[in-house]
Amino acid sequence: MNLIKKLVDEFQHYFPGNDDIRIFFAPGRVNLIGEHTDYNSGYVLPAALSKGTYMVVRLRSDRQFCLRSANFPHVDINFSIDELMYKRDDDWGNYPKGVIRELLDAGVSLTGADIYYYGDIPNGAGLSSSASIGMATGFGLSQMHRFPISIKEMALLCQRMENHFIGVKTGIMDQYAVGFGKQDYAIFIDCGSMTHELVPLQLGDYKLVITNSNKRRGLADSKYNERRKECEKGLSVIQKIYPMCQTLTDVSLNMLENAGDTFDPIIRKRIRHVVTENQRVIDAVRQLKSGNLIGFGQLMAASHESLRDDYEVTGEHLDVLFAAQKACPGCVGTRMTGAGFGGCTISIVHKNEILSFKRTVKDIYEKKTGLEPDFYICEVGDGVKELTKEGVI
């Protein structure tokens, strides 16, 4: 059965009523290179995925929101517009709830809705399921209420939701990539100026392979906020020497070296990662534009090593995957992707070597960690959009 028809039928089962139903989709994203730079006003190079969050919705007029998810079939989340408070027990439902509150604050005259979600992004894998559900909700409800808001403004709205309602100090990359993604293109984002450029992602006989470590990212949120604070501390120190530096993206390696012993050694490492990672993103864009996947892959490996040694966010499981994948024939580039401490790696693998790649990596990873990885052959897809009941625009 067609997926969209199946979801509409399930929606009608849970929420019987008229056919005034609309369907929206927001992708997940994978970051090819440029990690932990977005909240430092730096450069990132993500791509939207063909996997994501589907939202089937019908408006109500009684100020009630009723949420269900195909992924959590035994959980109903119901609340009034007058009860938009974070509740730990609501789990995933806090993301749409937070977006609804942001939409109200932005002036959208919401009246309530029945909403049914389905996501085919692995939850907790670092592929931005949270940004996906947030952008699907914000885009869909604003479209249904004919509220004029740009993709960029919607991305900022969803970022505010995660920062203030959920309490995770994310940068703008995830929401921006989910909004502006385009099939067969990566997105070069300058997170300081909030501008972007689409970069052709011509893989030829190679495929993007995401490997899920299946190590839940239990430390990711707390360590993410800790790294942000370390970067803020480093910037405050360097501004005493170089007051013209507004963000860490304005800092060069020469500035860092000239600062001498001013820095705590840990803070120096954090800044060094941000500075070198920004340059790697710029170099990566150049390599992709010239069609040099080998050069691009070398930058991916250098990114992982910097995240491991200077930013210290990889952890044992991702490092085991990285070492195993880097040694595989046909793998021209690999690195961790996402916040770290579990989650996924992203690799570029020749199509003829994918089966061998999966078998080798699985054997090594299971022996060293006791966990079994999952593999996803990725297609690069479009950003947030509305679908018809046939599943196309």
TrEMBL record:
InterPro entries in alphabetical order: Galactokinase (IPR000705), Galactokinase_bac (IPR022963), Galactokinase_CS (IPR019741), GalKase_N (IPR019539), GHMP_kinase_C_dom (IPR013750), GHMP_kinase_C_sf (IPR036554), GHMP_kinase_N_dom (IPR006204), GHMP_knse_ATP-bd_CS (IPR006203)
Subcellular location: Cytoplasm
Residues in GHMP kinase C-terminal domain copies: 285-363
All residue ranges annotated as the GHMP kinase N-terminal domain in the record: 94-182
Binding site for substrate: 35-38, 224
Transmembrane feature ranges: none
GO molecular function annotation: galactokinase activity
Keyword Metal-binding among record annotations: yes
EC numbers on record: 2.7.1.6
Reactions it catalyzes: alpha-D-galactose + ATP = alpha-D-galactose 1-phosphate + ADP + H(+)
Keywords, alphabetical: ATP-binding, Carbohydrate metabolism, Cytoplasm, Galactose metabolism, Kinase, Magnesium, Metal-binding, Nucleotide-binding, Transferase
Domain Galactokinase N-terminal intervals: 10-58
Binding-site residues for ATP, renumbered to this chain: 69, 124-130
Active site: 174 (proton acceptor)
Keyword Mitochondrion found: no
Residues binding Mg(2+), per UniProt: 130, 162
Site keyed Transition state stabilizer: positions: 29
Pathway entry: Carbohydrate metabolism; galactose metabolism
Enzyme class: transferase
Protein family per UniProt: Belongs to the GHMP kinase family. GalK subfamily.
Role: Catalyzes the transfer of the gamma-phosphate of ATP to D-galactose to form alpha-D-galactose-1-phosphate (Gal-1-P).
Entry-linked NCBIfam families: gal_kin, PRK05322.1
Protein name: Galactokinase
Lineage: Bacteria, Bacillati, Bacillota, Bacilli, Bacillales
